[in-house]
């Protein structure tokens, strides 16, 4: 009896980031659409070939998209917001790029779709915008073409599509006046606006059911036997109306024509949705057991309640860890499940392998981790080994946890009001001061110098001279633009986490371990291999140099401990809490050194502060405890008049503002341009007491914002935030933009700020 093997998805960037480079060349007009498609389809084919070579039973089709799967599905459904009216002249591919970037050839620049984190990962998805009169116009021709290409491999196929319920859950209604009308005052503790918004979204079920039915009919005609329907929201604490939606949808979509629908959940166990999930009238269910708590054995509960005719796909291989699997232990699970399920047992990755690097074979692996790692390609081999029973113990895998680490957290003694008064007197900044988030364009010259240095073709001294030249240019441009608080531009940094990982003990940096963050943006998460310590200052010399170039304040730029942890691959046998506290101590020492070097403002970025939040409410208090404790500890060495900034972006902060407030940063800068003013309203409603800098333009879009665009954000902010606690800044760092775009946008930002400042002072 053979066990079927499959994966939920494979990295789509290519082993050498081929898709990224092809996209960017296409956007820049350097290659034609036909040339881009040829390069993209070569990556697609390589992904399929990897699955064939590994010996998987089913080849996964439909997971390969150009930018984001939710975005692709929205365009296939005809969900095009009205501001993209010119998208009708574009094909599917260019429509996706237009919605994601706000720019397309021969089209007017408009605001791009909102982008936010995909559950508790560092991947970002594009949020579909529905209006109350939404009409769906389905076109899945590109998916059908993909299936025809896949058939040339002559392998059994499994097609992936986003689930109807999850798609609606992850979308938002853009005209919400009707939902607000349903709010009423009571003390029941219920968010009536949220309920009304859910009801407004769920009304689209009836319009989408015929579209999904027609899609499944066409897939059956094309010879497809299995369809993986991604319904990740099944692992969340779902409100009753969403649970009811699952029952309603899948009773309408159930099949009896041989097409087998497999519902895929991941990132957590099914929790209280267990009975709901196993009873859905589909052929099978996928569960992710890699997130089960030690000793929980939730998968056994699923098997016990699973109807006797259903397939169960066990997600045994982690799609979010780079550590090799303990196949001996996992084989015990397989054998137990096999006794109950027989040939109804499938084996898979817990989630898509999108979240890990592509292939370990290109790396030079240090001895201390050799044999302990597995990237996406190696995980395919692990799956096949489990299914075949070709199991051997990996003696290099540690079975014991490292010695427990703990830390008595410290925090600043003075309250914000006293600190802010002292800082205002010392810094002497104008009303609504202007600044940027930290990074400036990583130019071709910077990349060339870094590449030559890494290859040994440029000496340390020559590299330092090259970086100082770029820092000097960044300072000069900021002074000419008239910004109030400057940054050194981070020319010497490849990435806000990788840079610090390279200077702290306890990390290993891969060479080709790239992972997609969004669109063509890839990051190379460091791998934590041992205890983390700081042996020397990491940023002081660069900030000191920048300070010699200007009489204005230059911020010190650090990455916070929670973000370093969440954007790294944590160790296999150390709790996240312990690792974060180790990082916090390292950053605390750096804050102290910067302060001693005369740096007056220090920014500790926590872009991923919310990202690691457990998906279940019952598990969140523990995370917030050590996350807040870590941030307060690393800023505790700051004196009363040293101003601590932090930055957060592209997350839903509505449910964690008390924790953000507890961080007690003097100034927080946040993304607001893509998500509108809703976030500022939340900060106002919940009474955020400290200073805040709302992002006035979206740096991830190449479109040039106008003064009026930016003014809208600040005018909205002034309705809720006192002017003396308001800053002006872009949404995020500027490393992905070019200097022409950057200077144009920042000139508009400074002009707008001066206009508002003059009006406030006159009043």
TrEMBL record:
Pfam families: Meth_synt_1, Meth_synt_2
Entry binding sites for 5-methyltetrahydropteroyltri-L-glutamate: 20, 122, 521-522, 567
Active site (record annotation): 700 (proton donor)
Cofactors required: Zn(2+)
Classification lineage: Bacteria, Pseudomonadati, Pseudomonadota, Gammaproteobacteria, Moraxellales
UniProt-recorded name of the protein: 5-methyltetrahydropteroyltriglutamate--homocysteine S-methyltransferase
InterPro entries registered for this protein in UniProt: Cbl-indep_Met_Synth_N, Cobalamin-indep_Met_synthase, Met_Synth_C/arc, UROD/MetE-like_sf
TM regions (residue ranges): none
């Amino acid at each position: 009896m053979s066990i079927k093997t499959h994966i939920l998805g494979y990295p789509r960037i290519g082993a050498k980031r081929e898709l990224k480079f092809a996209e960017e060349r296409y956007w820049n007009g350097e290659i034609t659409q036909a040339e881009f498609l040829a390069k993209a389809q070569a990556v697609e084919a390589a992904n399929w070939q990897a699955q064939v070579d590994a010996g998987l039973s089913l080849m996964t089709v439909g997971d390969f998209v150009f930018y984001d799967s939710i975005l692709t599905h929205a365009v296939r459904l005809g969900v095009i917001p009205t501001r993209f009216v010119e998208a009708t002249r574009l094909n599917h591919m260019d429509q996706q790029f237009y919605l994601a970037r706000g720019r397309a050839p021969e089209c007017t620049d408009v605001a791009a779709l909102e982008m936010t984190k995909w559950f508790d990962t560092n991947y970002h998805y594009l949020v579909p915008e529905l209006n109350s009169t939404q009409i769906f116009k389905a076109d899945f021709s590109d998916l059908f073409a993909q299936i025809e290409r896949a058939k040339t491999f002559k392998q059994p196929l499994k097609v992936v599509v986003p689930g109807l319920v999850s798609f609606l859950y992850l979308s938002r209604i853009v005209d919400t006046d009707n939902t607000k009308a349903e709010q009423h005052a009571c003390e029941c503790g219920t968010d009536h606006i949220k309920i009304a918004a859910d009801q407004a979204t769920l009304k689209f079920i009836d319009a989408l059911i015929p579209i999904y039915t027609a899609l499944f009919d066409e897939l059956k005609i094309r010879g497809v036997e299995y369809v993986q329907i991604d319904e990740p929201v099944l692992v969340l604490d779902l409100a009753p109306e969403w649970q009811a939606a699952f029952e309603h949808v899948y009773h309408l979509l159930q099949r009896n024509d041989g097409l087998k629908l497999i519902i895929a959940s991941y990132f957590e166990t099914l929790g209280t949705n267990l009975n709901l999930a196993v009873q859905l009238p589909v052929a099978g269910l996928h569960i992710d057991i890699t997130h089960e708590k030690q000793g929980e054995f939730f998968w056994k509960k699923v098997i016990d309640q699973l109807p006797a005719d259903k397939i169960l796909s066990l997600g045994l291989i982690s799609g979010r860890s780079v550590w090799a699997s303990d196949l001996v232990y996992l084989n015990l699970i397989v054998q137990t499940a096999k006794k109950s399920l027989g040939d109804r047992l499938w084996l898979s990755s817990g989630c898509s392998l999108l979240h890990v690097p592509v292939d370990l074979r290109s790396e030079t692996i240090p001895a201390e981790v050799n044999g302990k790692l597995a990237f996406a390609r190696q995980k395919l081999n692990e799956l096949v080994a489990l299914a075949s029973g070709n199991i051997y113990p990996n003696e290099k895998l540690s079975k014991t946890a490292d010695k427990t680490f703990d830390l008595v957290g410290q925090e600043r003694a003075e309250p914000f009001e006293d600190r802010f008064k002292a800082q205002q007197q010392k810094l002497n900044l104008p009303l609504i001061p202007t600044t940027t988030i930290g990074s400036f364009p990583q130019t071709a010259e910077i990349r060339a110098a870094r590449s030559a240095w890494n290859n040994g073709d440029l000496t340390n001294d020559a590299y330092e001279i090259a970086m100082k030249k770029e820092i000097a240019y960044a300072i000069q441009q900021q002074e000419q633009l008239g910004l109030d608080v400057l940054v050194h531009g981070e020319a010497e940094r490849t990435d806000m986490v990788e840079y610090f990982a390279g200077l702290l003990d306890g990390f290993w940096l891969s060479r080709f371990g790239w992972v997609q963050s969004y669109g063509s943006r890839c990051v190379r998460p460091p791998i934590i291999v041992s205890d983390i310590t700081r042996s020397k200052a990491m940023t002081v010399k660069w900030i000191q140099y920048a300070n010699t170039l200007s009489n204005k304040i230059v911020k010190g730029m650090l990455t916070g401990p929670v973000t370093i942890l969440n954007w790294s691959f944590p160790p296999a046998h150390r709790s996240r809490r312990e690792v974060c506290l180790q990082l916090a101590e390292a950053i605390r020492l750096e804050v102290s050194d910067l302060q001693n070097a005369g740096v007056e403002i220090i920014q500790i970025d926590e872009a991923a502060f919310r990202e690691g939040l457990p998906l279940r409410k019952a598990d969140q208090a523990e995370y917030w405890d050590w996350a807040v404790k870590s941030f307060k500890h690393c800023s505790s060495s700051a004196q009363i008049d040293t101003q601590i900034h932090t930055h957060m972006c592209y997350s839903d902060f509505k449910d964690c503002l008390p924790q953000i407030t507890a961080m007690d940063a003097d100034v927080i800068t946040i993304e607001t341009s893509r998500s509108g003013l809703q976030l500022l309203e939340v900060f106002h409603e919940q009474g955020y007491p400290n200073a805040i800098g709302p992002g006035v333009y979206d740096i991830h879009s190449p479109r040039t914002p106008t003064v009026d665009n930016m003014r809208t954000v600040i005018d909205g902010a002034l309705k809720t935030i006192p002017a003396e606690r308001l800053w002006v800044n872009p949404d995020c760092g500027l490393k992905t933009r070019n200097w022409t775009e950057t200077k144009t946008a920042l000139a508009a930002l400074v002009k707008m700020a001066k206009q508002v400042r003059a009006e406030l002072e006159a009043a």
